[in-house]
Amino acid sequence: MADIILRVENLKKDFDALPVIDGWNFELTKGEGIAIVGPSGCGKTTFLKIIADLDGNFSGKIEKNFKMIGFVFQEPRLIPWISVMENLTFVLPDKEKILHFLNAMRLGGFENYLPSQLSGGMKQRVNLVRALIVDPEILILDEPFASLDMPVKFEIIEDINALRKQKRFAIIMITHDTKEAISMVDRVLILSKRPSKIVEEVKIELEDEERDISNTAFIKTESTLMKRIFYNMR
Amino acid sequence: MKILLGILIFLIAWQVFSVVLNVPLILPSPYLTFESLSHLMIQSDTYQAIFSTVWKSLLVLLAVIAVGIPIGFVMGINESIYEIFRPAVTVIQAVPVISWLALVVFVWGIGWKGPVVISFLSLLPISIFTTATGVRSTDKNLIEMAKLYKVPKTKVVRVIYFGSLVPFIFSTVEVIIGDVWKVVVVAEYLCGSSGIGVLISWARQYVDVPRIYALTIITVALGITAERVTKIAFRKILSKWQISS
Hints:
Radius of gyration of chain B: 22 Å
Number of helices of chain A: 7
Low-confidence stretches of chain A: none
Largest sheet of chain A: 6 strands, mixed
Structural class of chain A: alpha/beta
Mean pLDDT of chain B: 89
Helix content of chain B: over 70%
Strand content of chain B: under 5%
Strand content of chain A: 25-35%
Mean pLDDT of chain A: 90
Structural class of chain B: mainly alpha
Number of strands of chain B: 0
Strand order of the largest sheet of chain A: 5-6-7-3-8-9
Largest sheet of chain B: none
Oligomer: heterodimer
């Protein structure tokens, strides 16, 4: 199984005496997209930090067959006093590549703007460009659209999907929004309350053209997914 | 317009109090004070004294920034170093000027070094603690982002830590510029050989109270001018930092 880029085996994580993650097991293959949904405080963001080497205090086994991840944070995390271009060269000093991604993410011409001069959606796009310029094998999305309005959110999702087709990166997404999940991923892992376990896995078997919120198959899938989520979180 | 009105009200109140009190040795009238000020402004000694106070103040300002910011930076970046240095800096902050005076006069006698050293020691803790607070308040999310993308540490220090520090450095400079004149003049008064403080000391010996008030007006004018110029100069640069991402 050479195309498995992430294998999680019996992952456990406690905060002092409080168990948060209780034995997660799953695999992620190259180019695959998964969403993790679950109640607040069940360790979703903590899990992302473990994957990103920002938290090494856990038990269990994590097998990583990738070199680089891109992390789209919930809040843009842009350095306020430097321009968009400087924020991006801070991570990767390759202006040509950055300009290519800025254009792909509809940010061409904004490279010399300060973050404060951008709208919320534009800041999130810069956050996304920063994650993409490093050529990630896994793109991690930590509720990145939570503060955006619907049209902006789905415009960005469309752009990510288009880039994913070209670059073949995998996605791990944390979200509370079933529409976001269905638009972007192949599987949804549903978590129980804390200490969380992966209680169910729902496959999203939609063709590309069906991943549209107005599509009948999309609506049907969302209804099924929501039922499973409510059932498991009760 | 409102400022001019405020100044006018202040001058009227001053005149009224001086007439009511009628003790020119404590509160001379504005007329006597400004008469003394006009005499001072035509004497070359006054300008020499102003120049002497100005260069000492600038020297103190530069020294406080050059020494205080690196120490504050190191204290801010490392909790252990902060705890080790904190008592010493707190003690320096708490030592009364008179204690420094005894030491300084003993080592250097009367001259320019005493006022500079006393002012430096009085203002150094402000610079150190403000810088340390700035570093400690650096956005941890930005540090985490840099760590995730494996950004070299030197770049993180240069861009994120120094960048976070800028508003604190500017506010330190603003605070020190407001205070440095007062501190230098007091130190000159106590152990200086030239400067506005020395002129005040001589005026005190001759019981020339209007002259003391006139010299005070010069000091206040210098302080306010320096503070205003700094604020205007910093405003544009700081606009980047005042808006968060």
